[in-house]
Specification:
- The complex is a heterodimer of chains A (246) and B (138).
- With 246 residues, chain A is mainly α.
- Chain A is built from eleven helices and no strands.
- Chain A has a domain at 137-244.
- Chain B contains seven helices and no strands.
- Chain B is rod-shaped, with a radius of gyration of 25 Å.
- The chains are: A mainly alpha (246), B mainly alpha (138).
Chain lengths: 246, 138
């Protein structure tokens, strides 16, 4: 408590203020019955302890509840974003293994196996749009179109004699689109391709696309040029003839 | 009394939360480990379906992960190899005609390996081979 005269801190045991020397009347009651005050103090302490003891389980339970709720939120967040976490992890792995993967990529390219190259890139989630694989960006763009073309022709034509095909018109549509997309993409990027360090592979891809069209769709150089300059309807009619009626 | 009731309710809520948390952790773990080519219900099922329908080209395209280095579950390996067989036959023709003699030879080798690995499927492999031959227009 404080002295009324000088405001100094005084104890209940003090009879006079140790700072200003005033006789302390406010502590007189306590000094007259110190035992009673002591008991009151003990009682208050016991009451406080009891109240705390009664509330501790609820406090602990509340803390556990809070932790469980945080855990649920974190687990759900991870679950919802697991695909991105996996992708990121694989991407980081591909950066870490750049030397090893570069050799494998070069092997695919040297073999002219561009569908294998695409499968490798996709499976390992290699980010061709950022370092250290950024030099593959244009090659990858052209490869995607080439793979679509090869896969669509393969899907449309390679089936058994008793194959069940439920929507053959999709084959025609997909083939027409992917053929046009590949040659258009190549044409639009011609200048960039010529300046690209991987231009030989891209030209080889075009050569292989020409071979696919000739081997599987009967379009030799002259017929291919005519086909590519035809209208969409004529292109569809030709592909229908080859894919559906042969 | 009220405190006891509140405590009891909080314990029940905690138990329910703990139950959901265990479920969520399990789901998160499964999602983190999820990989299409390792699942026995998605891609292998499609592969099996297309092979049964004799859509060998689609099966070939679906088997591409195996050529990208994917690890395939033993239970699904047969379907992937059948798809790869069809794919390799289709690609071999392109390699032969584009002058990639070494790659074409590697395809031949791979075709022989698959045949050797799958003696029970020789009839189906023959059928795929016949179908692949028919796709080539001379």
């Amino acid at each position: 408590m404080k002295c009324r005269s000088c405001g100094g801190e005084v104890s209940l045991q003090d009879k006079t203020c140790p700072y200003c020397g005033r006789v302390l009347t406010e502590t007189a009651g306590h000094q007259a019955e110190p035992e009673q005050y002591k008991k009151k103090s003990e009682k208050s302490k016991r009451g406080l302890g009891k109240a705390l003891a009664e509330n501790i389980p609820i406090v602990i339970s509340s803390v556990v509840m809070l932790l469980l709720i945080i855990g649920l939120i974190v687990a759900n967040y991870i679950s919802e974003n697991a695909y991105h976490f996996r992708e990121d992890a694989m991407r980081k792995e591909s950066v870490k293994k750049y030397d090893e993967y570069s050799v494998l990529i070069k092997n695919y390219l040297a073999a002219g196996d561009y569908t294998g190259f695409a499968s490798f890139m996709s499976y390992h989630n290699i980010a061709e749009y950022e370092e250290p694989y950024a030099d593959l960006k244009l090659l990858w763009d052209i490869t995607e179109e080439y793979v679509d073309l090869a896969c669509d022709v393969e899907e449309a034509l390679l089936h058994g004699p008793e194959a069940r095909i439920y929507s053959p018109e999709n084959y025609v549509f997909n083939c027409r689109m992917s053929i046009n997309d590949f040659y258009s993409e190549f044409k639009w990027n011609q200048d960039k391709i010529d300046a690209d360090p991987y231009k030989d592979y891209m030209y080889d891809m075009k050569k292989k696309a020409n071979i696919i069209l000739e081997t599987y769709l009967g379009l030799d150089d002259e017929a291919r040029e005519a086909y590519l300059s035809d209208s969409q309807n004529k292109q569809s009619a030709y592909l229908e003839e080859v894919i559906l009626h042969d | 009394m009220i405190k006891k009731v509140v405590f009891g309710i909080s314990i029940i809520i905690n138990l329910v939360l703990a139950y959901f948390l265990v479920g969520s952790i399990k789901e998160a773990k499964e999602n983190l480990e999820f990989e299409y080519v390792e699942q026995d219900t998605i891609r292998p099922d499609s592969l099996r379906m297309y092979l049964e329908r004799e859509n060998y080209g689609t099966a070939a395209v679906l088997s591409h992960p195996i050529r990208g280095g994917a690890e395939i579950d033993d239970l699904d390996m047969d379907y992937y190899l059948l798809g790869e067989y069809a794919d390799t036959l289709f690609l071999k023709e392109i390699f032969v005609r584009s002058g990639n003699a070494d790659t074409a030879a590697a395809c031949e080798k791979r075709l022989a390996e698959i045949r050797e690995k799958m003696p029970d499927y020789s009839e189906l492999l023959d059928k795929i081979e016949q179908s692949a031959k028919k796709t080539v227009r001379e």
